[in-house]
Amino acid sequence: MTVRLEEMSANEFQQYLSFAIKNFADEQIKSGNWEPHEAISNAKKEYEKLLPEGQNTENHNLFTIRYGDKEVGVIWIAERTDAKGFIYDINIWEESQCKGYGKKAMQEIEIFAKENGMNSIGLHVFGHNKVARYLYEKLGYRETNIKMEKTL
């Protein structure tokens, strides 16, 4: 299976941004971090802070994941400090999930990171996302922090 990472076009970035803001807001609500009435506004602020120059923000690389001519998802990696990369987002579109594209995209982003001087990659995964956690563990990522909470 050949999966390619292609730099997002301006149009793809705008479509991604609309999806990502809503998705991030939904994940924050599921995690109990944000109230529904504030989630979209908070998510927009986070994306504006992280990507002040949109897809042209320095040290941020946003890719469309392709299998053949088909767009199957997106991945966003940034070089943060001291040659450390951070994956801010990876999403495989629903109709393309469970076909190995996520695993292949993660392997491709590791190649990209090495070629661009990064010697480690971090990422955040919501605790309720067991599928993603399993994938990352299979690929050799280890937990470095765990935040827990109990609703009373």
TrEMBL record:
CDD domains: NAT_SF. The keyword Ribonucleoprotein applies. InterPro entries: Acyl_CoA_acyltransferase, GNAT_dom. Coiled coil: none annotated. Pfam families: Acetyltransf_1. The keyword Amino-acid biosynthesis does not apply. GO terms for molecular function: acyltransferase activity, transferring groups other than amino-acyl groups. Residues 3-152 form the N-acetyltransferase domain. It comes from the Bacteria. GO terms for cellular component: ribosome. Keywords: Ribonucleoprotein, Ribosomal protein. This is Ribosomal protein S18 acetylase RimI-like enzyme. It comes from Saliterribacillus persicus. The lineage of its organism: Bacteria, Bacillati, Bacillota, Bacilli, Bacillales.
